[in-house]
Design a protein that fits this description.
2-enoyl-CoA Hydratase, Chain A, domain 1, 7-stranded mixed sheet, 2 domains
Length: 317
């Protein structure tokens, strides 16, 4: 007789997560770079930015790049976490390798990212905070969601006047009954609390106010970010440029990411969502090029701009 299998607590981003440990939070010290943040023991769990943030990044920040280059600069002009659609993405493993290559020298981190996997962002934050030399973070365009967490690792944070820092609660996709939902909410709470602690330590703002801003999914302009302590100074406008080819590519890929997140939000697994997008060829209003021929990471010139209308139709249903 087969032994019955235990019921998974929830479906998170298309993966079964069997009651992951709650995990203890470490309250940071009152200094520029607080203590390490907790990450899930079960890394099958993914926490995302929202499709709406992806869209705002495409509209307001895509293609913004820094003029300055150097061998001590780490650029984060991509989604946080491994990115299926490009084969790229900013990961803790890549950042750790870059830090080793740079060695014990001051670091400049340039950020223009809509976010992505919040737990990968926490891991990157933890890697950066261990660097022994000063870190200057420059927000060019946007540091949203997971990218805003990474920005807090800077000893100095500079931001463009027209750039944004966006903060929100840990965002996952789950399915189940009310008991499953309650368990997921309880499991997520320590991570949100830890993020509040880090933002509060950096900004010296009241923790309750920060929690409210996270509840409201708050976008802060450059001047507001400085006023609230999330940044220290404005970046001169002549340190940034609009890279038009990069802008077009950012928007092209971001429509795919937003479509994937929308389908995941509707109940599909990530694998099924990607398969659905790769079958869009021939859909009225969709791209005329063959999406299903895309190889992740390939430098192709396919036009995905027709996905915008299809994405809007999903979000309006």
């Amino acid at each position: 007789m087969n032994k019955p299998q235990p019921k998974p607590a929830a479906i998170v981003a298309g993966s079964s997560v069997a009651r992951p440990p709650r995990g203890a939070t470490t309250k940071p010290q009152n200094m520029a770079r607080p203590a390490a943040l907790p990450v899930p023991a079960n890394r099958q769990v993914h926490a995302f930015t929202t499709p709406q943030v992806m869209e705002k990044w495409s509209e307001d920040a895509a293609g913004v790049r820094a003029i300055a280059t150097g061998d001590n600069i780490i650029t984060m002009f991509d989604a946080i976490g491994e990115d299926y659609w490009t084969g790229g993405g900013v990961t803790a493993k890549k950042v750790a390798a870059q830090l080793r290559a740079i060695g014990p020298r001051p670091i400049e981190v340039q950020i223009n990212s809509p976010g992505g996997d919040v737990f990968e962002g926490i891991a990157i934050y933890n890697v950066l905070r261990e660097h022994p030399e000063p870190i200057t973070v420059k927000v060019m365009g946007m540091a949203a969601s997971a990218a805003s967490i990474i920005a807090m690792a800077g000893d100095t944070i500079e931001i463009g006047a027209a750039s944004f820092i966006m903060i929100h609660n840990t965002w996952v996709v789950s399915a189940g009954n009310r008991h499953d939902m309650r368990e997921v909410a309880e499991w997520l709470e320590p991570f949100d609390t830890a993020l509040v602690d880090v933002y509060a330590a950096r900004t010296k703002q009241d923790a309750k106010a920060i929690a409210k801003w996270m509840d409201d999914e708050t976008f802060m302009s450059g001047s507001m970010a400085i006023e609230r302590g999330f940044a220290d100074a404005l970046l001169p406008s002549d340190t940034m440029t609009q890279d038009e080819p990069a802008k077009a590519e950012d928007r092209r890929v971001n429509e795919l990411r937003a479509m994937e997140l929308t389908l995941v939000s509707a109940g599909k697994s990530r694998t099924d969502a990607r398969a659905s997008i790769n079958k869009i060829k021939g859909t009225p209003g969709a791209a005329t090029d063959a999406v299903d021929t895309v190889t992740p990471g390939a430098d192709d010139a396919d036009d995905y701009t027709g996905l915008a209308g299809l994405l809007a139709s999903f979000q309006n249903t």
